[in-house]
Design goal:
FAD/NAD(P)-binding domain; 2 domains; alpha/beta; 600 residues; eight-stranded mixed sheet; 22 strands; 15% strand; 36% helix; binds NADPH dihydro-nicotinamide-adenine-dinucleotide phosphate; five-stranded parallel sheet
């Protein structure tokens, strides 16, 4: 095996090891393993950040565009509509402020590990200079509010308001939006931007309701209990034994602070995350001031191309996310290969991936003192099977005497008792359990967004999507006129999610503008266009089917159970670069093809 010797690892052995690790984690119940946060668990989603309850009269009026969600999706939609001259907007937001995921996720250490210069939207429009390459959650929350001020969106928002039901009133060709505050107002257009990871999930562990200690989910951090703030200083935990369940991207960021604050910290792990170096640094103001107009889109496009497997002449972001592609190019250049077939390219990609993950595993050995703990912290799967993490303090936290890694060998926590957590047959008594267990992804759309929507014929979206998602471009749905959905289902998905939202919002702004210009009262995806798009999504998803099937379970692969339905619910398999081009070309063509105008 000359190749194995040259590379410093044996690809066959690694492939087999990855398979074994995945198999350990496969479970029959897939998405059903999680406990929905309703009923006796609904306190897990109460808003701990509210300083005052807003009081207002219920609204029964009419607006041009209603936008559900005040995160980056809603903000971008609002911004693009303003740019298109739309003044009559109403935004509906469950939280007490703009910010979406950054409103809710205020856990200690919360930060974005996608470079701020590509992650934060509208940087040229607002003129905001992120203070660091990787910006903190609190700064992102403040920046969300800056966007809202810039586009004068505060006058149009209903905070602390949850949508309960939406239906199309065919008599007046308007959406009727009903909320938990008794509103029932009309809107000509409706944009749904509920967020892809908005519904916290709990593990469906037996005994979870028996626990008598303190608990909360990371997305509703209880600073009253822990003390401190997003920068740490969790002094309330100084005499506490604390457990955190989960070792995903959120836990990776808050574990170092828990480790510092708690008397004892137990980290319960089912699958280790891949932890690359973060290497944060302050923004070079001179570089910033010399950026040429148009730099932001160029940089976002460059990052997007590289992380979705494309080739670009230069790597502008140049960090851990893009490194895998640098490895690949290096390999190809070294071997002077040219004209590679798709299979050959995929084989090279796998080798580059192995190489990258070998360096991630070597980093664990270099940082973590105890060899046994280090071994358990090593991820054995391909880099993009799970969200890669970038942190300089997570692995060193396991060198502290007060921190114990409880690896569950892929099985997860067994049981919760009145006093604590049982794993590997051992009960760990703790004062507090922090659930770093993530958010619902693969469950029904209606369950995740929290309200039902009824279209032109009265059919609900849940019924329309009974056998899987059905959209045109991921944005329009047949039978649901003047509706736009923002998200990742059947659209181009990129690790830099706000980039996708930006492209979607530009597209929505264009369609609404065309309707105004052409005096079209109603716009709706045709049945044929929707069906053709669904078939495109399914056939492209088949290209990724094997990759996902080989991955360790998680929300990227429907908890290890890729199915016909999950192929249909997938994103655009040819990647975000190709998808954005589909939208660009469609707008360029100017025919609004696939949409019935004045229908209904
Ligand atoms: P994840 O879904 O990524 O992680 C949930 C964790 O809980 C996993 O480690 C999971 O294990 C574990 N878990 C679930 N059930 C059990 C169980 N029964 N026993 C033990 N462990 C269990 O959620 P996160 O909140 O960490 O992250 C969600 C997403 O938010 C990320 O993927 C990322 O997209 C985003 N994020 C982005 C950040 C950024 O920098 N931009 C920072 C933080 C989050 P297993 O892996 O085995 O399923």
């Amino acid at each position: 095996m000359a190749e194995a010797i040259d590379l410093g690892f044996d690809p066959d052995a690694l492939r087999e090891k990855y398979r074994q690790e995945r198999d350990k984690r496969l479970r029959e119940d897939g998405n059903n393993q999680y406990q929905e946060v309703t009923g006796q668990f609904s306190h897990y989603v109460e808003d701990p950040y509210l300083d005052r309850e807003i009081e207002r009269e219920a609204l029964f009026d009419e607006v041009e565009v209603a936008i559900i969600g005040g995160g980056f999706g809603g903000l971008l939609a609002g911004a693009r509509l303003r740019e298109a001259g739309v003044q009559d907007i109403r935004m509906i937001e469950k939280g007490g402020e703009f910010g979406g995921t950054w409103y809710w996720n205020r856990y200690p250490g919360a930060a974005c590990d996608i470079e701020a210069y590509v992650y934060l939207p509208l940087l040229e429009e607002t003129g905001y200079m992120p203070p660091k390459k990787y910006v903190d959650g609190a700064d992102i929350l403040a920046y969300s509010q800056q966007i809202a001020r810039k586009y004068d969106l505060y006058r149009d928002v209903l905070f602390q308001t949850e949508v309960g039901e939406v239906h199309w009133d065919a008599g007046v060709s308007r959406w009727v939006v009903q909320t938990n505050r008794g509103d029932a107002f009309k809107a000509r257009f409706l944009i749904m931007s509920n967020g892809p990871l908005n519904r916290p999930k709990l593990p469906g562990i037996p005994g979870i309701e028996d626990y008598r200690g303190h608990t909360f989910h990371t997305s509703r951090w209880d600073y009253n209990y822990t003390g401190g703030n997003a920068d740490g200083g969790l002094t309330g935990l100084a005499d506490k034994k604390v457990a955190i369940i989960g070792t995903g991207a959120t836990a990776v960021q808050c574990v170092p602070h828990l480790a510092e604050g708690a008397a004892e910290l137990y980290v319960f792990q089912r699958t280790p995350s891949s932890i690359d170096e973060r290497n944060d640094r302050p923004t070079d103001t001179q570089w910033w001031q010399n950026l040429e107009p148009g730099w932001h889109q160029k940089r976002m496009d460059n990052f997007n191309t590289l992380v979705s497997g494309g080739v670009a002449e230069e790597d502008l972001v140049n960090d851990g996310w893009t490194e895998i592609i640098r490895n690949l190019l290096l390999m190809i250049q070294t071997e002077k290969d040219s004209g590679l077939s798709m299979e050959e390219l995929q084989a090279k990609m796998e080798l580059a991936d192995f190489q990258k993950m070998e360096s991630i595993r070597a980093r664990v050995d270099a940082v973590v003192n105890d060899p046994n703990t280090a071994e358990h912290l090593k991820p054995f799967y391909r880099q993009f099977c799970k969200r890669p993490c970038f942190h300089d303090d997570y692995l060193p936290a396991f060198n502290r005497d007060n921190v114990t890694l409880v690896d569950t060998n892929g099985r997860g926590v067994e049981r919760i008792t009145e006093k604590g957590i049982v794993a590997n047959g051992v009960e760990y008594e703790v004062d507090c359990i922090v659930f770093g267990t993530g958010f619902e992804v693969g469950t029904d759309y209606q369950r995740r967004c929290g309200y039902e929507i009824h279209g032109r014929t009265g059919e609900s979206l849940s019924d329309h999507w009974r056998d899987g998602a059905r959209t045109f471009h991921g944005l329009h749905v047949h039978g649901f006129p003047n509706l736009f959905m923002m998200g990742h289902t059947q659209t181009g998905f990129t690790a830099n999610y706000p980039h996708a939202l930006n492209e979607q919002s530009k597209h929505i702004g264009y369609v609404i503008n065309q309707c105004e210009a052409g005096n079209h009262k109603v716009v709706e995806a045709s049945a044929e266009a929707e069906e053709a798009w669904v078939q495109t999504i399914i056939s492209l998803a088949r290209m990724n089917e094997q990759f996902l099937a080989d991955c360790t379970p998680g929300y990227y692969n429907n908890e290890g159970k890729p199915s016909e339905r999950s192929l249909q619910d997938a994103n655009y398999g040819a990647g975000p670069v190709a998808f954005f081009k589909v939208l660009d070309d469609w707008r360029e063509e100017g025919l609004m093809s696939g949409l019935d105008l004045n229908a209904g």
